Each structure stands twice: as C-alpha cells, then as structure tokens.
Automatic annotation (TrEMBL), chain A:
Name assigned to this protein: ABC transporter permease
Polar residues composition-biased segments: 12-22
Transmembrane helix keyword on record: yes
Primary location: membrane
Residue ranges annotated for the ABC transmembrane type-1 domain, each copy included: 105-293
Keyword Membrane: yes
Keywords linked to the UniProt accession: Cell membrane, Membrane, Transmembrane, Transmembrane helix, Transport
Automatic annotation (TrEMBL), chain B:
Annotated localization: Cell membrane
Residue intervals of the ABC transmembrane type-1 domain: 95-304
Membrane topology per record: Multi-pass membrane protein
UniProt-recorded name of the protein: ABC transporter permease
Species this protein is from: Microvirga arabica
Keywords: Cell membrane, Membrane, Transmembrane, Transmembrane helix, Transport
Automatic annotation (TrEMBL), chain C:
Name of the protein: ABC transporter substrate-binding protein
The organism's place on the tree of life at top rank: Bacteria
Cell location: Periplasm
Signal sequence interval, chain numbering: 1-32
Family: Belongs to the bacterial solute-binding protein 5 family.
Species of the source: Microvirga arabica
Keyword Transferase part of the UniProt annotation: no
InterPro entries given in the database record: Peptide/Ni-bd (IPR030678), SBP_5 (IPR039424), SBP_5_CS (IPR023765), SBP_5_dom (IPR000914)
Limits of the Solute-binding protein family domain: 75-433
PROSITE patterns the UniProt entry points to: SBP_BACTERIAL_5
Alphabetical UniProt keywords: Signal
Length: 308, 313, 532
C-alpha cells in the first residue's frame, strides 16, 4: 500500500502498516506504566530487568567495586590467568581484565545510549520534516538513500581516520548509517497518520502544523521508536566491537567490551577469557535490552498486546 | 511496469552522483597520502612531491574529481595507485568469494529463519517460541568475529571437518569450494537468521489477527493451511523488505567474515584500499556497492505485487 | 580418528609413489612442488626502487639479482659480477658480469642494463644519493663490463652495491630502468632466481613466482645474499592474511608451509607442534625506537627530551611488545648491538626507567604542561605497544599525554607533517627497523640530523652531519668506529633518536621444508620440500 502512495526508490512498505492511530494522554501513560510494572511478574523479564540494573549500577559505581585503574599497564604481568590480585586475569598489556570489564560497562552503555539518543533525535526531526513537508521529502529521502548506499564500515573508517579515534567519532560513525532507517520509520508513520480522516479534518480546520505534529503525529512514532531504539542500542554496541575489530574503533586505552574482545581475539586459543568475559557480559546486556524492548513494544502497541 | 522500472533506474543516477561526490570529498579530506604509502616511511619530501606529481595528486581536488567523472563516463574506473592494476579487474578478481559468501548466507538464512519464525508464531508464547526467540536474541548479541573464532576452534581445529581459512573457486570443484564456505556462511548467517526469524514471527502474528484468517478458520481450514497458505503469504511483504535491507547491510558482515576466514573478497579489498588510501579503488567499490544496494531495493519493490496482489505499479 | 589414520595412509602411499617416480625420471619431479608462504603483508607496490617497504624488497630479491652480495660475516662478495678491479688510485672500479646471465624474457644481461639500473637506483636511494656526489662517471666499457669513476676514494661504492636493505641495488633491463625514478615500473622482469607470474598476481593477496629455469647460480654455498641461489622447488606462492591467528591455524593444519613472522604471543601454539619448526631466521633482528619532534614545544627543549628518555624504560617496552625474553634484549646502540658499530654510550639513560630523574629534569626545564601528542597505530602488532608504554612512562614522570590512535598508514603519512601538534602535527611516534638496514650512519636514517631535511623528527645537529660525511670518506675501520662512537654520543645526548631495545621475530615452517636459510632477508632459494 505504501508503494502506491510513494513509488520512490528504496521505499519500504509494511513497516508501519499495522500501526493504528492512537494518541497517548496522561491517564493512558499511567496505565502503560502499570502494565510495564506488571510484566515484571514474568520470570525472564524480571531476570532481564535485574541484569540491566546490575550493569547500569556497575557502570555508575565502577571505582567502588574493587577495581584498579583500567588503563594502568604492567607489562611485567601480562596475559595472566585468574588470581587473587587479578580476579579475571590480565590482558596483553598487563591491565586488569576485571577492572576493564566493569569500566567497559560505562563505555559500552555510553556508546549504546549515545548512539540511540542521537539516532532517535535526528531520525525523528528529519523524519517528521520529510513526512509532513512534502516539498522537502524528495530531497531528504534521496540524501538518506545516498547515505544508506555507502557501506557503513567504510564511512566509519574514513570518519575515524579523519578525526582520530574518540568516543564522539565512533558515535557519529555508528549514528550516521543508522539514521536513515529511523527517518524512514518516522516518515512512514507520519504519512499513514496524515491520511487518517480525523487528521485530514484537523488540517482542513486550519490546525497549525506544530500542534498537529505534537498532538497527533509524534506520539504515534513513540512506540515504534522505542522498539527501534532498543535495536539501535544493541546494534551500536555490536558495531563498536566490529569497528574495533577492523582497527577503526575507540582508542585501545579506553576499555569497551568491543575493544577488549577485538584485542583479545589473538589470544583466543591461549586465554579465551579475554574474549569470553566481556563477551558474556555483552551478550547478557544485549539479551536484557532486547527482552525489555519486546516487552515495551507489546505494552505500547495495543494491537500486539491484544494477541499476547 | 516497464516505465516504472525505467523511472526507478533513472532516479538512481542522482543518488549515485551524490554518493560519488560525497565519497570523493571525504577521501580527499582524510589525512593520508598514497605517495607516502608507496614510497615507505623514510622518503624525503622531494621524493613524495615527485610521486604525487606523477599520479596527478597535486592537482586541485575539483579538477581531480572532474577528470575522474569524465573517465567514468567512458567506463574507465582508473587504476590502483599502488599496484597499477585496473580497478575493474581488481573488482572482478575479488567478486567471486564475496558473491558466494553473500548468496550462501541469504540461502542459509532464508532456509533456517523462515521456518523458525513460523514455528515460533505458531507456538506463540509457548516454550518453543520463547526458546527460539531467546536464541535469536543471542544471534544479535554475539559479534560475528567471535562466532567465527568459535566455529574455527571447534569445527576446524578440534574436529578437523573444515579448513581454517581460504577460498577455492567453483571451477576447482564443488566440494573444495563448498568446504571452505561452510564456516564463513554459518558465522555470517547468525545475525540474519535472528533478524528474519523475528520479523517472520511478528509479521505472521500480526496477520493472524486479520479478518480473513478468522474467515479461513471458520471455514474449517486446518492450522497448518492457515499458517502456510494465508498467513505466510500475507506476511511476506515485511519479510521480503527486511531481507532486502539485510542484503544491503551484508557488506559490513562480509568485511569482517572475509578477514576472519581469509576470503579474498571485496570486503577485504575495501578495508585494504581505505587503509592504503588507494582512492580509485575505494571510489570504484563505493559506486559498485551503491549500485548493488539500489538494485536490490528495486528488486524488493518489484517483488511486492507477487506476494500482495493489492500492490500494483 | 579414523580420518587421521586414513590421511596418514594416503600420505604414505603418496610419498612412495613420489619417490618411485623420482627414481625413474630423475630430472622431472613427479608433480610441481609449491611452497605457500604467508608474508608479513600483502604485496601491492612492485617497484623496489620507488618503495622501501620490506615486502617490496623481499619481492625484489625473488625476481631481481644484485651485482654484489653480502654474506653472514658482513663480507662483500660478487653476485652477478664475476669480479671487480680497482685501479691503483682507488678511484676507478671496473665490474665484469658473469657468463650466462639472462633476463626473464630471454635477452642477455648487458653492462648497459646495469648502468641504467644503477643510475635509476642512485637517484632514489638515500645512500645512492650520497654516493653520487662522490662519483664522476659511470660508463660502459664493453658488453660485459662497466666502470665507476670516483672523485675520491670511498668504500661506500661497494657497500651500497651490496646493500641488503632497504632499496638494494637491483638490476633491471635498460628499457625498464629508464622509467623516471619517481614513477613505478610497469614490467616486472629481472634476472633473479624466480620469475614473476603476472597472470596470477592479485595485489595485496597473492603473488606467484615460478622457478627461473635459465638461472645460473654461483657455485659457492648460499649465505645471505651472496653465493649460489639454487632453487629446488617449482613454484613459490606468497599469501597475505589479514588476521594473525589465521596463518598459525593454517600452518598447523598443513594448509600453508611457511610464516614469515609469527606473533610472539602465538608462539606457544606452534612450539608444541611436532610438524612445525619455529626459528629466528633474521639473526640480526630489529631495533625499535621513538622519535621526538624537534621543531615544536615541548621537545624543542633538549632537557625535556632527556627527561623523556630517562622516563621510558626498555624492559617495559620489550615485555609489552615481545613478552618472551628469548626474543628480546635491551640495547642502547643506535647502530644496533652485535653489529660492527655497536656502542654502549647512554645505556644508563635509555635502558632503565628512571622516573625520579625524569621528574627532576622536568622541574629544571619548567615544563608548562603542554600536552604531548603521541601517535599510536592500532593495526600493526610490531608498532602498537610502544606508544602505550611510552605514554604510561611519560605520565608517571609528570608529562601530560594525548595518545592519538590511528591506523599505521595514517601514522606513516602523519609523521611527515611538520606542523605544530595543535595544528595536527605530533610530538612522539615510534617504529622499528631491521638492523640489517641500520648498521651504519647511511643505512640508518634515524641519525641524519640536517634539520627539516632530515627524517621525521627533524633534529638539527650539524656535528652529526659532519661526522656522517667523514664516515663516507673514511676507509679505515678503526677510524670509522671512532666516528660512529661520536655519533652515538651525540644522538643520545641530543635526543635524536630514543632506542627502545632489540628483538627478533621468529618464522615458522612446516617440517616438510628443509634447507631454510638464516638470513636478514627472507629468501626462498635453497629450500627443498618433501612430500611426507
């Protein structure tokens, strides 16, 4: 159906075809929260929630958890196994693996959250403009097509070598290729809401655009954006690991899980812990994020909730 | 239909030009000097200047861009700054492994993911569904290179079933070809199986709530018929969309997988060319990838009417 | 288990049949023998005169030959040359080519070819450039001999013709050698023991060399680049693998025969393997060092360079870089320990990490907290750890350090940037060189101290420049040792270069290979491959 409305290159129909127009008002928000709390009764959801809380707490209170300086090198005691001084052993520079895993939670969460926020904000802004102002639509979508057509890895390597590896560079390198997807999502929601009779009525009654957008359109993007957000969050942490693997990630001094895994890959057969410890924590975190993301989607999307 | 395709193909031209110009600009703004890479790290400034002159890198950027575009119009992608090999023949040399890896991954993904998604949707909320969904989340949560190393360690080194690395073209026999592709394809498929199984599940669940399914059920159709004949067909549009997006994003995965398994494909060529600032090679590759991406999107859109008769062009 | 037994049985049967056919058809081997080697990087730049990359040099030794060679005693021996004669005034050298030399296209090697090759090489090579200031004429005498006339006697002529690395004086046919020195050659024809197979070449991935059946090796035993280059296999194939673990696994699995450089941390995997030899082939090894940017604060201040040199300790660097003490040792000599010009001056400055002394110097110099930009490559194992250890030591001493990460190629291009660190320049970078190249004041570009014309870092110490010229003119070894000792002292005192220690990188190869030669250059002649 989308394709009929917009026979433009790269259009993905179907993504928002199931969305019902619904506006979220205050009492509804309260009931949504209530429902969300209610889902914690389910075992897996509770476990996911606890894991995520632990990771966030660990990230916040890293210096208090018996860690050493995660950057301090000690070439004399490199590649050690588990010992009382080094709870999870040491890496190739003699840095404490446990401390790096704990501090890595900070970096990986910052990367995940940072990329998600940047992606959603940029995507929402651009998507709303594209969906609402028809004049801008064609140009914006062509630019988005162009960005999506450039392999993200290449873009990332170019960006990182342009400005040097830093958290901000990596965030930009992760965000830019992800934005077009969010833009398309937002735009398709806006488009489908726009064609609803009550919105058309509001338009013909002369309701100003900002009011229309804030009251009727943006709220409809929240549910799909939250779902998309969890995907971006998980993807960002994974992409950061991949970039590190290809030598275009964060500086190796900064302990991120992705960084640790790619540095540890050479020692995989000698000291598998260097990949496994950050890997397990990474997988557990992503698992929790995804489980919670599903829950949020089920609750926010009334149509889906009906069925589960 | 045909005018539509023609219009769509025509619409790719501005996109491609935009990509070409943007990439050209990014590359030339990036610090890095192919001359220094060619001459090695003890070259003097004078030697570097001479090399730059010979390669035309001393000319203003816009002039270089115009010259490159002009040659491109004649179908000439130029030669590698480093080895002097024509870019087109370099791409041709590296096409095989990447194509094999990508196609293998798509086939494996579709064969595994769609049945998994259907089963999960059918057993929605039950133990089987939860198991499949948890596994699929795991697929998202482990980086491709870690999966690759685990596969190499267990299946190649410990069990000796597959070679640890390398590529043999199909012309050297099917078995040597397939044997070297199994692990890379498995490693790369993980993420896509997870993605497409999830989409399949949620699309089918969504469709199952529609009126025509209720009608089919009330007519006494068995659950299997409802699932396979009615639900899957109608859920196909989002599934195909995601597969299309997935293929387009395969490139990143291909780069990593080709590195882990030492496949001499395009993914590795990209990274090598970027690190060596081999501008003509990078530009040629970008154009190729953009074109493939656009083509796949067109293909996906053309497939919609096949699955959903309500869509017409 | 079953499959292993079967495989062994197959090999045995194969071996027997190979031996049988070898006995019956002595000159033709039963099947083509190929050595597959994984080299440290992929071959992309093919011109050994334009590029000093080690892989390009190694490629050069496969397909080209040199007039003179050097053996393991650092003696200069004839290679393509049959002999050379020196006139009484020590100023005219006449070289005569040996019989039977042929280019890979079948044409005979003439003295014209050699003269053209020498001229092109001398334009590009740093030692060659110095040499040419002392040369008045290079001229053809007849088809097989040519002469070099010097303005003043120097031993630099023979030394540079026998130079091991980097940019050895390779000989090419005249039409190829007439390519401008700044332009890469497009035809790859030499007279060396292997032929380049152009149709199989995949830049960065694979290079194939076939045995040059027309090659006439010298009769002396092979030693380094001197002696007979006898090829015993039909084909050598170089592969490059992006991941360090891959070649190690492939070697253990019998998929490849040779790894040029095994990462130190992966050695235990191979050392315990019964089918693999692990051996240091380049006994001279490498030295690693760092450079200060002398143009900009804070390291335009000699005291602060001294402070940094006291702070950084070689033990920590070598532990992080190499780990295994078997393959590393501390060394203060800028011309390398175990080389003719080794000198120990400054060992108390550069070897230990003396943070207190560094702090004291820092105070004396009134360090104002200017951040120090250290370039850190992330993608090359041989150069990644040094900056991290340097940064850690400098921070302990009270320096403010900004560790800038990038890929190695970016470091290579960045290091030539003379701008100030705040405008994208740098203060410190680190790399390594082979000692085969660094053993004298000409091969070793790190001691050049002619300001902005010197190598990255741009130290300006006119005395060193004077000493280098004196070295070129000196023909007496004791005099030369005096000169190099003075250079050593100046290099350390002025902070021209900061030595970080020496290390050797082991190679690993299948036990099917025999006759692998120890040499500073990885060479594939003399190697035999058995089928077992």
């Amino acid at each position: 159906m989308q394709a009929i409305v917009n026979p433009l290159p790269g259009e993905s129909s179907g993504q928002a075809s199931g969305e019902l127009p619904s506006t979220v008002s205050a009492p509804q928000t309260a009931s949504v929260l209530k429902q969300l709390v209610g889902t914690l009764k389910s075992g897996p959801v509770l476990v996911a929630f606890v894991i995520l809380c632990v990771v966030i707490l660990a990230a916040l209170s890293a210096p208090l958890l018996g860690t050493n300086d995660p950057v301090a090198i000690d070439p004399g005691s490199r590649l050690r196994g588990i010992s009382p001084e080094h709870w999870l052993g040491t890496d190739a520079y003699g840095r404490d693996t446990y401390s790096r895993v704990v501090y890595g939670a900070r970096v990986s969460l910052i990367v995940g959250a940072g990329a998600t926020i940047m992606c959603i904000l940029l995507g929402l802004l651009i998507g709303v403009v594209a969906g609402y102002f028809r004049a801008a639509d064609a140009i914006i979508m062509r630019v988005m097509d162009g960005i999506m057509a450039i392999p993200s890895i290449l873009l990332a390597i170019a960006l990182v070598s342009l400005t040097g590896g830093s958290i901000l560079t990596v965030l930009v390198a992760i965000t830019v290729p992800e934005v077009p997807r969010v833009v398309r999502l937002v735009r398709s929601v806006i488009l489908s809401v726009r064609s609803e009779p009550y919105v058309e009525a509001a338009i013909s009654l002369g309701t100003p655009a900002p009011t229309l957008l804030v009251r009727h359109m943006v709220p409809n993007t929240i549910a799909p954006l939250i779902v998309q957000g969890t995907y971006v969050f998980a993807a960002a942490i994974l992409i950061e690991a991949t970039l590190s693997f290809l030598g275009a990630g964060l500086p190796p001094e900064i302990p991120s899980w992705g960084n640790m895994m790619s540095e540890g890959r050479m020692y995989f057969q000698l000291l598998p812990g260097l990949i496994l410890y950050p890997g397990i924590v990474l997988a557990a975190t992503l698992l929790s994020v995804n489980v919670l993301g599903d829950v949020v989607r089920d609750v926010l999307d009334p149509k889906m909730a009906k069925k589960s | 239909m045909l005018p539509y395709i023609a219009r769509r193909l025509l619409a790719t031209v501005p996109v491609m030009v935009m990509v070409a110009v943007v990439v050209f600009a990014i590359l030339r703004l990036t610090p890095g000097d192919p001359a220094a890479i060619i001459a090695g790290d003890d070259a003097t400034a004078e030697q570097l200047d001479k090399i730059r002159q010979t390669m035309g890198l001393d000319k203003p950027i816009y002039l270089q861009l115009v010259q490159w575009l002009a040659r491109l119009m004649q179908g000439d992608l130029g030669v590698s700054l480093l080895s002097g090999t024509p870019v087109l023949s370099m791409i041709g040399d590296r096409m095989g492994p990447s194509l094999a890896l990508a196609l293998g991954t798509i086939v494996v993904t579709v064969i595994i993911a769609i049945p998994l998604g259907i089963i999960a949707a059918w057993r929605q909320g039950k133990l089987l569904d939860r198991a499949i969904m948890t596994l699929s989340v795991l697929g998202f949560s482990v980086p491709t290179f870690v999966v690759g190393y685990l596969l190499i360690y267990s299946l190649s080194i410990k069990l000796g079933w597959f070679p640890v690395q390398g590529y043999k073209p199909l012309s050297e026999g099917f078995w040597p070809f397939a044997q070297r592709l199994v692990l890379p394809v498995l490693a790369l498929s993980g993420v896509y199986v997870a993605l497409i199984a999830r989409i399949t599940r949620s699309s089918i669940i969504e469709v199952m709530g529609e009126d025509f399914i209720r009608t089919a059920r009330s007519k006494g159709a068995t659950e299997r018929v409802v699932l396979m004949r009615h639900a899957l067909r109608n859920a196909a549009v989002p599934i195909v969309t995601i597969i299309g997006i997935g293929i387009a994003s395969l490139i990143s995965g291909v780069v990593v997988t080709e590195s882990v398994f030492n496949l001499p494909g395009l993914g590795r060529l990209v990274v090598e060319a970027v690190l060596a600032r081999d501008y003509p090679v990078i530009q040629g590759l970008i154009l190729l990838f953009s074109f493939i991406y656009i083509l796949i999107n067109l293909l996906v859109d053309l497939l919609y009417p096949v699955f959903d008769p309500r869509i017409r062009y | 288990m079953l499959s292993k037994v079967k495989r062994a049985a197959c090999y045995k049967a194969f071996g027997i049949s190979a031996a049988f056919s070898f006995a019956s058809l002595v000159t033709i081997p039963a099947h083509a023998q190929t050595i597959t080697a994984v080299m440290q990087s992929g071959l992309r730049v093919m011109d050994p005169v334009v590029s000093t990359a080690f892989i390009t040099r190694d490629h050069g030794y496969m397909i080209y030959d040199t007039l003179l060679g050097m053996n393991e005693k650092f003696e200069i021996k004839p290679q393509m040359a049959e002999k050379w004669e020196v006139a009484e005034d020590q100023k005219t050298y006449t070289f005569t080519l040996r019989d039977g030399l042929k280019w890979h296209d079948g044409a005979p090697v003439t003295s014209e070819d050699c003269v053209a090759s020498l001229k092109r090489w001398a334009q590009q090579d740093s030692t060659g450039q110095v040499l040419m200031t002392m040369v008045s004429d290079i001229a053809v005498v007849d088809g097989k001999s040519f002469k070099v006339v010097l303005k003043e006697p120097t031993s630099l002529l023979l030394e540079s013709l026998a130079k091991l690395s980097s940019r050895p004086a390779f000989m090419m046919p005249k039409r190829i050698a007439e390519t401008p020195a700044s332009e890469s050659i497009k035809e790859f024809i030499g007279s060396g023991p292997f032929k380049f197979v152009a149709s199989e070449f995949k830049p960065g991935l694979k290079v194939v060399y076939d045995k040059n059946k027309d090659y006439v090796p010298r009769s002396e035993p092979a030693s380094w680049t001197a002696g007979g280059k006898v090829v015993n296999v039909d084909r050598v194939q170089w592969a490059a693998m992006p991941d360090q673990m891959t070649p190690v696994n492939a070697l253990m699995n019998g998929e490849i025969d040779f790894i040029q450089q095994v990462p130190f941390d992966l050695l235990p995997m191979l050392e315990n393997n019964n089918d693999v030899n692990v051996e240091v082939l380049d006994k001279l090894g490498n030295w690693t060092y760092y450079r200060f940017n002398h143009l900009h604060p804070p390291f335009n201040n000699k005291l602060l360079r001294q402070a940094a040199m006291h702070a950084v300790g070689q033990d920590d660097v070598l532990k992080a870089l190499v780990g295994n003490p078997k393959y590393a040792k501390t060394c203060a000599a800028v011309f390398g320990c175990d080389t003719p010009y080794a000198d120990t001056y400054g060992k108390d400055v550069v070897i230990p990490s003396n943070i207190d002394k560094a702090k004291q110097l820092l105070k004396e110099a009134n360090y104002d907290g200017t951040p120090i930009v250290v370039l850190q490559p992330t993608d090359l194992a041989m150069v990644a750890p040094q900056p991290i250890v340097i940064a850690s030591a400098l921070r302990k001493a009270g320096f403010k350090v900004d560790l800038k990460t990038m890929d190695w190629q970016s470091v290579v291009t960045q290091q030539g940037n003379q701008k100030s660190p705040s405008e994208g320049g740098w203060n410190i970078f680190s790399t390594y060189s082979t000692l085969a190249t660094s053993g004298n004041p000409f091969g070793n570009t790190t001691v050049a101290a002619n300001g902005t014309k010197a190598w990255a870092g741009w130290p300006e110490v006119p005395e060193i420049e004077k000493l280098r010229l004196e070295f070129a003119r000196a023909t007496d070894e004791t005099k030369r040792k005096e000169i190099t000792a003075q250079i050593q002292k100046l290099a350390i005192d002025e902070g021209v270069v900061g030595p970080l220690g020496q290390f050797s990188v082991p190679a690993a190869y299948s036990k099917k290979l025999t006759g692998v030669l120890a040499s500073p250059i990885t060479v594939f002649w003399n190697i035999k491959k058995s089928d077992k």
